[in-house]
Amino acid sequence: MITELLSGLALFLFGMKYMSDSLQQAAGEKLRGVLDKCTKTKFIGVVFGALFTAFIQSSGATTVMEVSFVNAGILTLERSVGLTFGANIGTTITSQLVSLKLTAVAPFIIFIGSAVLMFGKKPLLKKIAAVIFGFGALFLGINFMTGALGQIPEYESLVRIFEYLDNPFIAVLLGLVLTVIVQSSSVTVSVLVLLAGSGLVEPLACLYFILGANIGSCTPAVMAAMNANRNAKRTAFIHVMFNVVGLVVISIILAFASQTIINGIMGISGSGDFKRFVANADTLFKVFQTIILFPCSGLLVKLSKKVIHSKGNEEHDENEMVLKYIGVSGAPSSSTAMVEIVQEIERMALMVRENLEFSTRALIENDRSASDDVYKREKYIDFLSHRITEYMVKANQYGMPIKDRERLGGLFHVVIDVERIGDHAVNIMDDAFKEKNKKINFSNEGKKELIKMYNKVIKIFDESVKTFVNNDKSNMDKINELEDIIDQMQIDYQEGHVERMAAGDCSIEAGLIFTDLVIGLERIADHAVNIAYSILPEKK
């Protein structure tokens, strides 16, 4: 019996994980694309959160994505509330599926899924086949567990253990602990469906167990928020409060009207169908919690801001080198990895821009006051380059949508291009010190040309980073036009400077530094263009 039970549980968990991961791969890119539209109002957010979670069958995955997106600034705290409510409703789809009598067709479903996986050639077809295979494995696991649990009534000592669940406190605690261990209320409630179907757990005990499992389901979001910023922590806090308030309110109702509640749910489920009873109770509780808390969502946001103050991840010493966005959700997820990487690269690019600005000012305006900051920031940039690349290598080892995998290759080059621009900025600062030590001065005309070229380079850098971050091709013509202008500037300014040196208006030493700077600025523009072109299937 134990072997059959454990085998069934392992197969159930494998099927659920395999199906969920496959669905996340398919939905990850689309989720990011529709996230803004589907969270404009809290009600739409609830509906979207419920549908998306039902689709991937994991509220944990949804809330971890949510925490990551809030941390990255892609999703606001206020907009995340609807997703949190919806995710709690959507996760009940698993227990509803488990309550259905589909175990007889499980082997047939597995056969179809595995056959297409082995012989299918189209990526989309294989993705669908993976979902089908996971779905079949899930129900085959249920079949094994049902057979094993059906033998428990024959063992009186085991039956007595389940009698302890008649104590509401123990039922809540067990539901919470088991869900924390497996980090999925879908799993624990699904097992409860099977236990109830075998007559091992009383209806009232099932209700309290569900309430405990709801609290335990907050674990993935809480863990993801531990290293995140304050708004991400507040998102996790709201998730916890949603289920804590549900536990308190529903427990009070059950204390006074438990039999009425049980009879009502049983009436919906069908007399004697305890599997449907548990599945429906799970869904109804989540819907009820959403109804009573939806009008109070603003209060939950205010409470989260009072409880979680402006302390934590944002208050790192500015000299302490840390990743701000990457790794918040733990292991790379197909739906969050790309968002985290792009946000961290943008952060790195902003540091490079600062260095470029201060270095050029030091050379042209003889203002070297920020030189120490430039060299410190360069070390930070090198740190980010190394850690981002390290994370991308790790992310590449996980299953990712084909579009994301293709873009990931381009991101490796973007990190290199951003770092190279940072190196050029440091070279400019080095030239500024050469200028100071050798008492070199540019002519007024030379300074004007350098400032003009620098402004164009900063413009192409900003446009390229914006194009990259927003994955927006509409600026490509503008970027190409700027590149042509900068290329022509390099030619014209070098020729003009040679003429000034010949006329004695500029020293040879100043000419060498001027030439280095013009060439360096043109190369920075080339790297900027590469950053923009990384969003295209083929580089220029």
Question: Please, could you describe this protein's structure?
Answer:
One of its GO terms (molecular function) is sodium:phosphate symporter activity. This is Na/Pi-cotransporter II-like protein. It is a multi-pass membrane protein. Its main location: membrane. Helices cover 78% and strands 0% of the residues. With 540 residues, it is mostly helical. The protein has two domains: 306 residues, no CATH class; 197 residues, Methane Monooxygenase Hydroxylase, Chain G, domain 1 (Up-down Bundle), CATH 1.20.58.220. α3 runs antiparallel to α13 and α19 packs parallel to α21.
Strand content: under 5%
Number of strands: 0
Classify the secondary structure makeup into a structural class.
mainly alpha
User: What string, H for helix and E for strand, traces the elements in order?
Assistant: HHHHHHHHHHHHHHHHHHHHH
Low-confidence parts lasting 5 or more residues at pLDDT below 50? Answer: 312-317
How would you sum up the global shape? elongated
Count of domain modules:
2
Portion of residues within helices: over 70%
- The whole-angstrom Rg is 30 Å
- Count the DSSP helices: 21
Mean pLDDT: 82
Largest sheet: none
The N- to C-terminal Cα distance equals 63 Å
